Amino acid sequence: MIQKLSERYRMGMQKLISTVGYTHPQIDLLLILHHRLLENLDNTLLYGDMPLLKMERVRILQQCNVVCLQLTQKSFASFCELPEGIAVALQNHATLRDPEKDRDERASLDTYLREMRDLLLQKGLLFTEPASQMRRMACERTLSVLRLMDGVRKGEIISFLYGTELIFRNAPVISLAGAELTQIYLAGVNMAWVNLAEACLMRGNLAWVNLAWANLEDANLFGADLFLTDLGRACLVGANLQAANLFGADLAQAEYDASTQWPIGFDPVAAGAIEVTRA
Predict the structure, then answer these.
(1) Is the domain of 115 the same as that of 228?
(2) pLDDT of 95 over the 80 cut
(3) Are both 191 and 84 inside the same structural domain?
(4) What is the spatial distance between Cα 268 and Cα 184, in angstroms, rounded to a whole number?
(5) How far apart (Å, rounded) are the C-alpha atoms in residues 162 and 142?
(6) Nearest residue to 61 via CA among 38, 44, 43, 83
(7) What's 162's DSSP letter?
(8) Average pLDDT over the chain, rounded to an integer
(9) What φ, ψ does residue 153 adopt, rounded to 5°?
(10) Who contacts 265 (Cβ-Cβ below 8 Å, separation ≥6)?
């Protein structure tokens, strides 16, 4: 079974890359996913379909599906020409949602974005005092709407807040402490100097993200995908990185302390990180 699926996955990825083309801005991310998928399939055929390999493959396939939908409006399963039963199992959770629920979620997101743009453009949110009522309302509204969203839309919200300079490291207008960002999808974006301190990013897709100088103090990154992620000079004090994928991640001069939790066997010093004492 895995042999036949392996052939389908390889064929599907080749067709996807051919469809997107090597001049597309996202081709590098696609090639990285291609490499990771082939490596997983080769190891699976060599050592058997062990639980860890299977779990990693599911994650990679979900990432392939999200990217595929974004770039082609087609599922990755369709490129692989998989039988219906297997194709359904491959779909990202967003594609399997109840249409009515999906519309409601989209409407909630659009309403939130309109409200935030009004606060920014009409009411000067960026220039309000830290303890102002407007900031508190904006923060509460943000945390509330994030709890309603799937991973892709959580990524949309965080990208919006970052692009409007509301969540920068040194002076965040909106605090994301306690934000529900489980399974967020942010692969391949720039988030340098972002403030995600105390946010829950469990099992998030942060592959190939620029998180240089980011504040991730006390953030929960359990099981997050940080493949090729730039964490240079990021603050990882108190962060939970257990079971995270740090393959190829850049941790040069990233700061951590004794309470930071790492994947089993990971050596932060060898990776270039620096142990500090929490202030």
Answers:
(1) yes
(2) no
(3) no
(4) 24
(5) 13
(6) 38
(7) H
(8) 88
(9) -75, -30
(10) none
- CA–CA separation, 173 vs 168, rounded Å? 8
Single-letter residue type at 27? I
Beta partners for 235? 215, 255
Q: Among the three residues 35, 67, 95, which one is the final residue of a domain in this structure?
A: 95
More reliable by pLDDT, 40 or 249: 249
**Enclosing domain of residue 176:** 97-279
Q: What is the pTM of this model?
A: 0.72
Residue with tokens 């509330």: 144
Query: Which of 33, 60, 95 is at the close of a domain?
Result: 95
Could you give the 3-state DSSP secondary structure of residue 121? helix
Instruction: Quickly count: other Cβ atoms within 10 Å of residue 256's Cβ.
Output: 25
* Overall domain count for the chain: 2
CATH code assigned at 106? 2.160.20.80
Q: How many CB atoms lie within 10 A of CB 192?
A: 17
Where would I find the H helices in the chain? 2-20, 27-47, 51-72, 76-80, 84-90, 99-121, 133-146, 151-163
Q: Decide if 180 contacts 143 (C-beta within 8 A).
A: yes
Give how far Cα 21 sits from Cα of 7, 26, 155, 201, Å: 21, 10, 25, 32
pLDDT at 274: 98
User: Do 267 and 129 share a structural domain?
Assistant: yes
Pick the most confident of 74-78, 126-130, 275-279. Answer: 126-130
On the CB side of 170, CA atoms within 13 Å amount to 1
* pLDDT tens figures, 202-239: 999 898 899 999 999 999 999 998 988 999 999 999 99
- The tokens for 253 are 């001069």
The DSSP secondary-structure symbol of 96 reads G
Going along the chain, which residue ranges are E strands?
A: 255-256, 274-275
